[in-house]
């Protein structure tokens, strides 16, 4: 096991994900909560759905108390971002972008960090000396829905390393390792050298891990690259790209794979992989 694997704990990555969410995304809830009728509808239906489960399955007091202590522990572990992003976000993403033209999106997940180093259109993501893993050249073009290049589009990229760990959320990895904001050229083109990420296992030693074990599920997401593509006048796309025939591509614990998001890199000279993927941005609404 690597040092990172020895030290990575659910409590650490969960707490970091919670801090990150509170730092970046507060402000949204206050606006959404101002619509009393909407809150009434949604809260009533969620609570009613819970009642239905209790009646349908004759839930016992013992089971109710297990649920209560589990919900408390999710908060104590800081794992609400992990839980929600794995089991709920994909449906929110589906609803949000059902009618959007252009590239398909996927969940953001808990590990985005704004402010990654800006990189030119031909670049290598920040990585350690001797960063383990197969080198991958990820290149393509950003256009609008008419096919016109989007000059200077920004591709914010983040990913797990060759062992499945994210900088800033697992210990012992430099802050911006395998994270960068790539600025496409005047033709919207980019060519980024990185490493192939490994499949990612959601932490097994916290509350989400206990649920997974208790239910007989597995904790794996297929290997993926995260990309958030944005440009003035266009709708941003937050997405993930996966690898053909990769482990868990068919049974992602976060249900976030779409057929349009599967890369098929080809091996080129000296064992490196290369793949082209183009992004299409819809006009800002
Ligand atoms: C989780 C982790 C990811 O890397 C991701 O893309 C989505 C969700 C998680 O642990 O919740
Ligand atoms: Fe991820």
Furnish the topology, listing elements before pairings.
Blueprint: H1 3-7, H2 10-25, H3 28-32, H4 36-56, H5 61-76, H6 80-87, H7 89-96, E1 118-119, E2 122-124, E3 135-144, E4 154-159, E5 179-183, E6 189-195, E7 200-201, H8 207-215, E8 220-221, E9 224-230, E10 237-243, E11 262-263, E12 266-267, E13 273-276, E14 279-281
Parallel strand pairs: 1-5, 2-6, 3-13, 3-14, 10-11
Antiparallel strand pairs: 3-6, 4-5, 4-9, 7-8, 9-10, 12-13
What does this structure look like?
By secondary structure, the chain is of the alpha/beta class. The protein has a domain at 96-281: Protocatechuate 3,4-Dioxygenase, subunit A (Sandwich), CATH 2.60.130. Helix content is 31%, strand content 22%. The protein has 8 helices and 14 strands. It has helices spanning 3-7, 10-25, 28-32, 36-56, 61-76, 80-87, 89-96, 207-215, and strands spanning 118-119, 122-124, 135-144, 154-159, 179-183, 189-195, 200-201, 220-221, 224-230, 237-243, 262-263, 266-267, 273-276, 279-281. A hairpin with a 5-residue loop joins strand 12 and strand 13. The longest helix is centred in the first third of the chain and has 21 residues, at 36-56. It binds 3,4-dihydroxybenzoic acid and fe (iii) ion. The site of fe (iii) ion (FE) has 5 residues, from strand 9.
């Amino acid at each position: 096991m690597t040092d990172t694997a020895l030290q990575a704990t659910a409590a650490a990555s969960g707490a970091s994900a919670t801090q990150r969410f509170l730092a970046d995304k507060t402000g949204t809830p206050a606006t959404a909560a101002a619509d009393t009728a909407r809150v009434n509808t949604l809260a009533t239906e969620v609570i009613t759905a819970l009642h239905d489960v209790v009646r349908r399955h004759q839930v016992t007091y013992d089971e109710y108390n297990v649920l209560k202590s589990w919900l408390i522990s999710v908060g104590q572990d800081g794992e609400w971002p992990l839980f929600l992003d794995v089991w709920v976000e994909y449906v929110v993403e589906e609803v949000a972008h059902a009618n959007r033209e252009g590239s398909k999106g996927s969940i953001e997940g808990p590990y985005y960090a704004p402010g990654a180093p800006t990189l030119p259109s031909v670049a290598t993501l920040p990585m350690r000396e001797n960063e383990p893993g197969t080198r991958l050249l990820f290149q393509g073009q950003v256009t609008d829905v008419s096919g016109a290049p989007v000059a200077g589009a920004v591709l914010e990229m983040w990913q797990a390393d060759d062992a499945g760990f994210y900088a800033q959320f697992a210990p012992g990895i430099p802050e911006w390792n395998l994270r960068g904001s790539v600025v496409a050229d005047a033709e919207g083109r980019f060519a980024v050298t990185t490493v192939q990420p490994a499949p990612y296992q959601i932490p097994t030693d916290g509350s989400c891990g206990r649920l997974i074990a208790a239910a007989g599920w597995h904790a794996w997401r297929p290997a993926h690259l995260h990309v958030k593509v944005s440009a003035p006048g266009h709708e941003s796309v937050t997405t993930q790209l996966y690898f053909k025939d990769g482990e868990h591509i068919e049974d992602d614990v976060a249900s976030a794979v779409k057929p349009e998001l599967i890369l098929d890199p080809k091996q080129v000279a000296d064992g490196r992989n290369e793949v082209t993927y183009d992004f299409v941005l819809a006009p800002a609404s």
